[in-house]
Amino acid sequence: MRVAIKNDARPQAMTLLAAAAISIILWFIPYAEVLTYPFRIFVTFIHEGGHAIAALITGNSVRSLSVAMNASGETYTTKGGLFSQMLVSSAGYIGAMAFGALLLVLIRRTVAARLVLVGSAGLILLLTVFYGLFTPLFLGFWGGIPFTLFAGIGLSVGLIAIAKFASARVATFFVSFLAVQCVLNALMDLKTVFFLSSSFVPKVSTDAVNMANATGLPAFLWAVIWIGLAFVILWIAMRLYVTGRDSRIQPDLPFEERVV
Question: How far apart are CA 146 and CA 156, in angstroms?
Answer without folding.
Answer: 16
